[in-house]
Amino acid sequence: MGTLKRFFQDTIIYGIATVVPRLLNFILVPLHTGILNSDEYSVNTTFYVWAAFFNVLLTYGMETSFFRFFSKATDKKKIFSTSFIALTTTTILFASLVFLFKQYLISIVDLDPYFFSILFSVLVLDTLVVIPFAYLRATNRPVRFAAIKILNILSVFLLNLYFLKIVPEFPDLAPTYVLNNYDQKDIVGYIFISNLIASGITFIILLPYFFKSKIQFSVPLFKQMWKYGWPIMVAGIAFIINDNLDKILLKDMISDSIMGAYSGCYKLAVFMMIFVQAFKMGAEPFFFNHSKEKNAKFTYAKILNYFVILGSLIFLVLVCFVDLFKQVVIPNSDYWVAMSIVPIILLANLFLGIYHNLSIWYKLTDKTRMGMYISLFGAFITVVMNLLLINIFGFIAAAWATLAAYGSMMLISYFLGRKYYPVPYNIKRVGFYLGLAIAFSSISFIFFRQNYIVASIFIFIFVAITYFKEQEDIKKILKRA
Fold it and tell me: pTM of the prediction?
């Protein structure tokens, strides 16, 4: 229980580093959807879709490679220096290529040249701080990591409020320079400018870590890290396809307005995304650092059990009360046309979280190519289902494609994990909680929507059953706490 306690402590701190940024972004959604029409929100979504894609490409799996090699290295400074120099060099190379092929890239991403320049600048700054951030996680400094992450998003949040609310509504509070250059017609651009300023602040704060160790670059080490990391990069690109291709295709195959509405409703899955991301950030270094312990596999099985219980409860609550959440998050009723996707996207993200838990087998056995193949299979499902079904069934097909992709990845990872790194997962118990949450949420959403008495009863039953089945472990955890 001591090891699990440490895992939960770190995960809670990383959770705060994830929850607060996501929560502030969550608060910004009604601001954005209230000011931007669905067409303008489509531009906002396009910007961040391409930011996610290029972020994966620029880091090429080096963050996960850093964790893997740092955890078992005797000369940890060499790991830090080699990975940092590698990322810095490739980022400079990327900047040079963008400068040469700027017009061609602008036509691909379908963004205003000014917005593209901001995107490019944000990508460079964010890539340069990847290894310093990874160093904080690998050396068990979650508090410092959380503080910097929170400061970053707090800057984004406050700057959004300043540019989108204070300047247009209280111009007397804005300096002359801002007023003279303020353009209300390009209001979406100020969202991107806020992101750029925040990335610059984070870069300055982490600048001391750039000189953390003496300059040493090991070519053999880099080759090993690249060999380990490039399949993770490909898998990351596949994840971007799974998570974002639907939005791009909806824009091209239906309309900007539908894409904006779909993307806005997608934001209602934010709490599940927070939970999954917090788990991933706490779990990845934990799994590597404790892989050699005697009861490691038993610990991994326990963690999956707790993850599914909490994830299923979050899923159930969000689906049962989804119409209350939409009033707060998306006050503009023009977006509500896509509300039917929310339960599907929530379940898809829960499956993704289970996949992240199961995927430890290919990371610990250095079979990252297997993870790449699984992700590519998921991307294949996403591409095929979207291209074939959107024109027939509309935007709902995109949501089902996401669920099918993540569900298939979860199942494939489980069965391959049994072969290469068997963990004693209690599948019957995990399946029971998952099935119970899906059944209750489906009945609530289809037959008792907005009946919050029935919704509360379903949630109470789920919690009571969980406590009855897990009371021994719950008592042990509470006793040690």
Answer: 0.75
